[in-house]
Amino acid sequence: MSQAPEASMDFRSMARDVAVRFLYQCESTRISYYAANHFKGFVSNIGISGPVAVQADQLAKGTLDRLSELDVMIQEASPNWKVSRMAMTDRCVLRMALNELLEGQTPPKVILNEAIELAKRYGTEHSGSFVNGVLDALMKRVKSAAS
What are phi and psi of 30, to 5 degrees? Predict the structure, then answer.
């Protein structure tokens, strides 16, 4: 998971990319809480700053702050897969995308498309379709809960 965001990406897409990589690092080192100094060190090491870093920070913080809630919702939407048994990359992408869905400030289709692309970039050959299926179910649940 060491790829850099592509220069052609807009800053929000780049921020999602950075946030997923940070969440992956947290997951792999078993850090399940947000620490500003940890995030600052991470973005400094990969050479990210400005609006991309600010947006990535918000995405990562929001995701880690509600990790338990997100995992419960992901588990409910994917009854055949325990969250703990999902590929780490898929878990990170799903958590961040669901957090962004719950915030309600970005169109759901944008979130879904970006999450699928991140899963394809960093996951396995099946990650894109897996993330698509789980997020589609989550989008329907979030939409019906808001109605």
Answer: 60, 40
- Assess whether pLDDT exceeds 60 at residue 83: yes
Question: Quick check: is 38 in a domain?
Answer: yes
Nearest-5° Cα angle at 33, 103 to 3:
80
State the DSSP H helix or E strand holding residue 48, giving kind and residue range, or none if neither.
none
pTM, two decimals, is 0.89
In a domain, 1, yes or no: no
Residue 91 sits in a domain whose CATH number is 1.10.940.10
The number of folded domains in the chain is: 1
- Domain assignment present for residue 39? The answer is yes
Percent helix, strand, coil in the chain, to 5, is: 75, 0, 25
Residue 40 inside a domain? The answer is yes
Q: Range of 59's domain?
A: 11-146
For residue 97, which of 132, 65, 127, 144 has the smallest C-alpha distance?
132
Look at residue 79 in the predicted model and tell me its pLDDT: 87
